[in-house]
Amino acid sequence: MTDHTIAGYLRKKRNWSWPGCANSILLCALLIFAWELGVRLGGVPAYLLPPPSVIFARMVSEFDEILYHSSITTIEVVVGFGLSILVSIPLAAVLSQFRALERALYPILVASQTIPKVAIAPLIVVWFGFGPLPKILIAFLICFFPIVVDALIGFRSTPKEVIWLARSMGASRWRIFLNFQVPGALPNIFAGLKVASTLAVVGAVVGEFVAADRGLGYQLILANGTLDVSLSFAVLVVLSLIGVALFAIVDLAERLMLPWHVSQRINQKR
């Protein structure tokens, strides 16, 4: 082993730090242990608050059923979230280039978000039937606005001095948008995507609450109707895992695409 290799190895050992995710895992384990211990020692009935061990056992016993309904809900969440990305980001790009269109359309977008999605969910079911399409559309509507707002702010945050300099060097409007505004907007876009990734699960479940014969929302309604509290908690855990997984995918994409951003450099230093 050469001196350089030894020095590099020692440097890595010295700079090693506790993985960031380990803190969250440890905290979750402590909370689950406290929950289990509190329920057991407190004599809380399982029909009021089941301990985590009972919930986990129910997830294992109902694995096939939960897996089937989870696949349905996951498809609705992913498709609705993907559709919101395909529509929201191009719309924000167009609005950032045409201020008159933005002034005309932006108030309408804001007004549309003041209407509770739970209130219009029955109408969407009436219009589009009882299949997966209404759930996808509700997830899309909930995810749509955060992405539009954050992307629009990102596209408009390019310093004017940069735009003036690019124009003085003969850059076209398209070149300025592609080479300066898009890279500058990516941090804001990913911020909107992170918010929307958690809301997509809410949208799909809201649609399943209104009208569905499958999906985790449907399974949750059945469990609540029969006062099956352990199954209700099991479904809620799976819904949370779906949302966390989607958020983690977006976060990973941000880390891969934005290694130069200040937030990523700060995370690496920690």
How are the SSEs placed, and which strands pair?
Layout lengths: L2 H13 L4 H23 L9 H10 L1 H35 L1 H15 L3 H12 L3 H25 L3 H9 L4 H38 L5 H10 L3 H29 L4 H8 L1
Helix pairs in contact: 3-11, 4-5, 4-7, 4-9, 4-10, 4-11, 6-7, 6-9, 7-9, 9-10, 9-11, 10-11
Give a quick rundown of the structure:
The protein has 270 residues and is mostly helical. The chain has helices at residues 3-15, 20-42, 52-61, 63-97, 99-113, 117-128, 132-156, 160-168, 173-210, 216-225, 229-257, 262-269.
Describe the structure.
This protein is mainly alpha-helical and 270 residues long. The protein folds into two domains: 1-44; 51-269, MetI-like fold, CATH 1.10.3720.10. 84% of the residues lie in helices and 0% in strands. It contains twelve helices and no strands. It has helices spanning 3-15, 20-42, 52-61, 63-97, 99-113, 117-128, 132-156, 160-168, 173-210, 216-225, 229-257, 262-269. The two termini are 30 Å apart.
